[in-house]
Amino acid sequence: MTTLLLAESTVKEEHGSRDKIYSYALIVLGITLIFLFQNLSKAPVNIFHNAVTIDPFSTLVKIIMVLGTMGAIYLSRSSKDIYTNLKSEFAIMAVGVLIGGMLLASANNMLTLYLGIETLSILSYVMSAFKRDESTSAEAGLKYALYGGLSAGVALYGMSHLYGVLGSIQFVEMMPKLATLQGLDVAITSVSFLLFFVGIGYKISCFPFHMWTPDVYQGSPIPVTAFFSIVPKIAGLAALVRVSMIFFSGNSIFAVSWIGLMLVIAAMTMTVGNVTAIGQSSVKRLLAFSSIGHVGMMILGVVVLNNDGIRAILFYGITYLFMTLIAFYITSHLSDMYGSDSEDVFRGLIYKHPVMAIVMAGVLFSLAGMPPFSGFVAKFNIFSVIIEKKYYGMALVAAINSVISLYYYMKLAKTMIFGQADGTEQILGFTKANQAVIVALFVPVLFLGIFWEKVMLISGNATIFIK
Amino acid sequence: MNGILNWILWLPVIGMVGVLLTPKSKENVIRYVTLATTALTLLLTIVLYLKFDTSTAAMQFVVKVPWIEQFHINYSLGIDGITLPMTFLNALLFFICTLSSWTVHKSIKGYFALLLMLQSTVFGVFFSLDFFLFYVYWEVMLLPMFFLIGIWGGENREYAAIKFFLYTFFGSIFMLVGIIALYYASGKGVDSFSILAHQGGKFTELTVDMFGHTFSFEKIFFWFMFLGFAIKVPVFPFHTWLPHAHVQAPTAVSVILAGVLLKMGTYGFLRIAFPIFPSAAVQYSNVIAILGLISVIYGAFCAMAQDDVKKLVAYSSVSHMGFVMLGLSAMTVQGMNGAVLQMFNHGTSTAMMFLLIGILYERSHHRWIVKPDGSKGFGGLYTKLPKFSVVFIIGMFASLGLPGLSGFISEALIFLGIYQKFTTITVIAVVGLLIGAAYLLWMFKRMFFGEVNPDCEKYEDMNAREVFYMIPLCICVIFFGIFPSPLLNVMKVSVGQLVDLLAKF
Lengths: 467, 505
Prior knowledge:
- The structure holds 2 protein chains of 2 kinds.
- By secondary structure, chain A is mainly alpha-helical.
- Chain A has helices spanning 2-15, 18-40, 56-78, 87-106, 110-128, 135-166, 171-178, 184-203, 212-219, 222-228, 231-248, 255-277, 283-303, 307-338, 349-352, 354-368, 374-388, 392-417, 432-450, 453-461; strands at 45-47, 52-54.
- Chain B starts with a helix and ends with a helix.
- Chain A binds chain B through residues 365, 370-372, 376, 380, 383-384, 387-388, 390, 392-393, 395-396, 399-400, 402-403, 406-407, 410-411, 414, 417-418, 452-453, 456-457, 460, and chain B through 67-70, 135-136, 139-140, 142-143, 146-147, 150-151, 157-158, 161-162, 165-166, 169-170, 173-174, 176-177, 180-181, 183-184, 208-211.
């Protein structure tokens, strides 16, 4: 239902004038949000011959994605990084990607899943090449397309083998057959799952499929980067969670090896992301690497293969959404004003825009997992699910990664607050509206750090429906 | 009466809001708001002391409100005889620091707001009876410290702030892993985040599989907690952040850092690491004692080698906190009482030293005993600044452990407590006392005696404000040196309970 509504919305948009499209998109997304919130408490259903599941899990994921899209579209209007004549296209494409993401989050068979990945990807390639006359943006688009095409192909190859062995593309029908596999089939299936994981792994940019992320993030316009670091990632994670829960939880014969794989991937993803982030001077690139680190954290929620893990991921996703949006909003506005996204434009921010500097510092500490911000609660939950399963070694890796991430976030905070602006440059103001939006986005970051029970309950109820 | 802890905890926050609402230009209003808040808090802690029941080891003035019921996390506060002296110390030092910060002129609105926030978080650490709450306060405390050092600090402040932050965060994240492990080990029940409910050696039998080996749960997580607290104390070899943080921090923040923040580490041992993991604590008491001993001796030698007087006092803190660790490792009534008493006494005497150095710095704008070029930084201060010198002598002798002043009693108790358990260590630790006397007296000689340095001619003696805020500390140091029983009476039941517990293992 919601997907249909969205499809309709895009058609409607084509007819409006450019400015109207922007408002239409936001209004329609707002309406979608209302429907989604209503869906949250409804019983799960499968539609389209079991191709799509609408369960509380997918609905909550969709809410996160819709909010992320709205945030990105809102940002796109003021951003100078997107050419004026492309702004309406941005809104349309973002909604298109969102539809792909929703499909991915709801996918209940292999085909829908693949369709979701492709819908998500194809428009993303275009979006990353939005700055037509800049070579970095073109590079981003090409890189994204090449990597994406390859990994989608590999995933499809894996899926076809799975179909060959298990004789169905429906998750629910495939699942019981896993237990009956024997001999060579087991080997083929495990390799196929591995290939299949490539497709998802690339979307969530986990190690070793993360190489494209920094370049694409840096080359794309900032609203696109903000969008990329939320919607495709959350969608990919949702698909990963669903597939893992269906095929590998309980007594699945692949459970042990899948958990092992996920542990290694999570550890490597966060370590690579966080260690590489240290040396970055471009804030966009820093946020790109840090988002890789966060994905690594979230994968840990997949490792445990239970509802607590899903709850932890969802809560993490919600907080990550707000933190990422604020970080990109501020980066975007600063980069519009001072023409660069390097660390230098943040220097002495506290003297130029005290409120923004404090908010940004709060977000950075939240990203690092400091109380009383919500990032801490998110991290606390991830820690707590992996410790419950007694992965102490993994907990230590995650702990050390938190320290590493704190270091580079703190370096940026230091530049903002301890650094002195040289004073020669003109001090340009944030508009009142921009400041108000950023502060409004900061409220949940703080609020969820202290009164997080309600949202935790909602995330806990958003379970996966397997039937 | 039960709400009094809430008031003490949140008054500084109210004051902070007041400061933030005051326009930037009204500097004096900001100062007086802060002063009024800290004064009121101090009054409340005195009320707390008067109402405190010294005959019970149970938690008093308990507040318990469910916070996150799903996880059984409570907002629960309470104090016992170990916390009360720390509470008083915290209130007193912040009151004094507000007065001493009168001379801060750089964006004072932010400064006083952060100072008040820091006070609230420190209270929070001492009051928390819930692990989650404790951890939140423990971490949040880092934020105001980070900014206070980083914005108002000395030349190398950014490095110092980051180092301080990273070190503490590193330790505390291990503590977090330990807290969560305890939560699951105790069965996710109603009390799984309660600090008190975990106490009493409930995890002695438990094992844990880690890296393919089976370990005792207690022994592993004792060290996790140990790391978190030891970095804070700081115990050798985790002390390297301390000199940087102290030297770069503004005077008031140095005072708070040495006066109360370091005590949070030893408080963690007393409240969490020892009572929750008693058998590991008893088993590894020799390691704690040896690390404490190294801190005493090494800190003292480092202090002796310093040319910067503030760095000297910073290293002397390492040395004196080493005595606290020695007292803790004794696990006897005298040793533990001595340790808690030393926590209080070190708080007052080091606060005096840092405040005096701050006062001197405002006049001289340098802190060199011997300048890098080899000339004397100060000389003959005694003749030029008589009031200052008298107070300095009191503070110095208190921290050196002269009988009749506060430092002596606590150190004597510690030695008394530890002698039977670790005789060799006691003998070596006494040498540390001697070195302590040596570096302090040597420093005093170089700065206060001899010919008057031409630079020192124009220095003014302490003014009325400075004298006023030094008086309470002088009283504390002298009064508790002669008559420590008001403090000992407060703590003895609580400490006794802990010693009894440890004696069972």
